[in-house]
Structures are given as C-alpha cells and as structure tokens.
Give the backbone structure.
Amino acid sequence: MAARRQWILGAAAVAIAAAGAFFAVGGTQAAPQTTFVLLDGSKQTTADLKGKVTLVNFWATSCVTCVAEMPRMVSTYEKYHARGYEHVGVAMSYDPPSYVVNFTETRKLPFKVAIDNTGAVARAWGEVQLTPTSYLVNRKGEIVKRYVGEPNFAELQELIEKLLAES
C-alpha cells in the first residue's frame, strides 16, 4: 500500500511538473470542452465563455486557502467584469452542495458558481485534485496560465488587463 501511494504521488509530481513546464514557457492550449452545472440549475459550457477572459477556479469550502483568497477573487471579478471578464467557481465533487450554497449566499459571491458532483469537470481540466487550482482563459478559449494555490493577485490582474486589451 505504501509503495502504491508513493508511486501515485510520484506520478502526480511528474504530471504537475510537466504541466508547469508547459505554462512556464508561455504556451497555450485549448480549454477543455466542459459543461458547468451552476447553482441555479442552469448550465454553461466552455464554448459559452468564448469572447470573454475567464478564470475557472476549482475550490472547496473546506480549503483554508480557497476561503482566504475568495474576497480577492470577488474584488478582481468586480474590477473587470464590466470589461468582459468572467469567473466560474467550480466546487469540488467532495464538497457538500449545501455547504457550497451556504458559502455562496453568505459571502454574496457575484460570479457563477458550479458544483462538480461527479468530478468530470476536474478530470477534464487536468485531473484537478489540489485546491485552489485556477486557469486563466483568453477570449479565444485558450488556457494562458494555471495557478496551483493562491495566485499572485498583482500578476493575475496584470495578465487580465493584458488579455482584455487584446481583441
């Protein structure tokens, strides 16, 4: 059992390093075609977000860093939303839906929040398991940056500004 766990952790480290290397050299890749099931029961697809700069943020109510970064996620959304910026918060499959709804309502999250009940969205976006993990997607639907852990918000906002300026 310990050997298997060590193998899994090693494989995860290699996958994270490979993904990090891809984004470190400034590459882009198409965002996966996924469907987000929002708290109000409506659905939104990745294709619906084309033409907007979007942050797809995988989080959980049990994640201390996720909860701590949320006010800055809200202020970033409020700062750029009118200029074509979107934010989709994707609650992980292990997060009880009632906790997600309560968190969203009590914190008055202004952006779209989805629940990934089956884990399919997290799998499609690169087997996301660590929270928070966020992907910044340009207007063409390409992932331009991946953040594991809390992003450097000054850098994130600078990149959002740049992407919003591109037509």
Remarks:
- The domain at 28-165 is CATH 3.40.30.10 (Glutaredoxin).
